[in-house]
Every structure is written in structure tokens, then in C-alpha cells.
């Protein structure tokens, strides 16, 4: 019995099609792995907070996780608790400033960035966001405060 091996005919765009499918699969796996690790991290942080409720670091980390998930109310709550536990951590004020910036509360964001800079004058990102929030606050409130371009 003889077997004949016939060459397989390939579709002219087979390589491109397989490449596109591979890219889609990689993208989906990247997205789902990021979501999974974020949820897993928040679960771990909650466990750490329960086991050590006086650790400001755990509250700050969970607040940052919540900020990344756009849970701004939860982020503010956790970061506030981190500040209560350690009022000398510039990262806590900076993080809360970022959340307030995202919520459009530019005045309080500026105050938090100022406090972060008082605690760490070399905090370059705090300078950047303080100026950005100052500009947004000024733009949003200049018409309501009675100021004009000539005053």
C-alpha cells in the first residue's frame, strides 16, 4: 500500500489571519491577567488590613488599587485612613491628590499636593499635578469669582 503525500494548499492570507488571531489572544490574555492580578492584589490587601489594621501602608496600597479600578470613593476612604495612621507620608497625600484631581476637586487636590511637597520637596510629580490642578481650578472658577483678565 502506497501513501501519496500531497502538498497542502494554503490560503494566500493564512499567515496574516493566524497572526491576527495570535495578537487578539495575546491581548485578551494580557487584559484578563491584569484584571485578575488587580483583584487578587485587592483581596490580599484586605486580608493584610484585617491582620494588621494599624498599617498605613496596607491602606495606602489598597487605596491605590481602588483608584486604578476607578472606585474613587473607596480609594479616598482607604487613603484617608492611611493618613490618619501616618500623617507624615507624602505618598499618601500625593495619592489622595490624584484621586481628588480625577474627581474634579482641584482646590483640595492642590492642598494635598502642597502637603506632599512640604513633606518631600523633591517630589517632582507632586509639582506637576499641583500646577495642573491650579490651572484647572483657575480656569473653572475665574468667571464665578468676579476676576477678569484686567484685574
Automatic annotation (TrEMBL):
<dbReference type="InterPro" id="IPR019734">
    <property type="entry name" value="TPR_rpt"/>
</dbReference>
<dbReference type="GO" id="GO:0046813">
    <property type="term" value="P:receptor-mediated virion attachment to host cell"/>
</dbReference>
<dbReference type="GO" id="GO:0009279">
    <property type="term" value="C:cell outer membrane"/>
</dbReference>
<keyword id="KW-0677">Repeat</keyword>
<keyword id="KW-1133">Transmembrane helix</keyword>
<keyword id="KW-0802">TPR repeat</keyword>
<feature type="repeat" description="TPR">
    <location>
        <begin position="90"/>
        <end position="123"/>
    </location>
</feature>
<feature type="repeat" description="TPR">
    <location>
        <begin position="56"/>
        <end position="89"/>
    </location>
</feature>
<keyword id="KW-0812">Transmembrane</keyword>
<dbReference type="Pfam" id="PF13414">
    <property type="entry name" value="TPR_11"/>
</dbReference>
<keyword id="KW-0472">Membrane</keyword>
<protein>
    <submittedName>
        <fullName>Tetratricopeptide repeat protein</fullName>
    </submittedName>
</protein>
<dbReference type="InterPro" id="IPR011990">
    <property type="entry name" value="TPR-like_helical_dom_sf"/>
</dbReference>
<dbReference type="InterPro" id="IPR050498">
    <property type="entry name" value="Ycf3"/>
</dbReference>
<feature type="transmembrane region" description="Helical">
    <location>
        <begin position="12"/>
        <end position="31"/>
    </location>
</feature>
Amino acid at each position: 500500500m502506497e501513501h501519496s503525500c500531497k502538498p497542502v494548499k494554503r490560503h494566500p492570507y493564512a499567515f496574516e489571519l493566524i497572526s491576527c488571531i495570535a495578537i487578539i489572544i495575546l491581548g485578551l490574555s494580557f487584559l484578563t491577567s491584569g484584571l485578575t492580578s488587580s483583584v487578587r492584589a485587592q483581596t490580599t490587601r484586605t486580608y493584610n488590613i484585617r491582620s494588621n489594621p494599624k498599617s498605613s501602608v496596607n491602606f495606602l496600597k489598597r487605596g491605590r488599587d481602588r483608584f486604578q479600578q476607578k472606585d474613587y470613593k473607596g480609594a479616598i476612604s482607604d487613603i484617608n485612613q492611611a493618613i490618619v495612621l501616618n500623617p507624615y507620608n507624602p505618598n499618601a497625600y500625593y495619592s489622595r491628590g490624584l484621586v481628588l484631581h480625577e474627581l474634579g476637586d482641584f482646590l483640595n487636590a492642590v492642598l494635598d499636593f502642597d502637603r506632599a511637597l512640604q513633606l518631600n520637596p523633591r517630589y517632582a510629580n507632586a509639582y506637576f499635578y499641583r500646577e495642573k490642578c491650579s490651572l484647572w481650578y483657575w480656569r473653572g472658577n475665574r468667571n464665578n469669582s468676579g476676576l477678569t483678565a484686567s484685574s
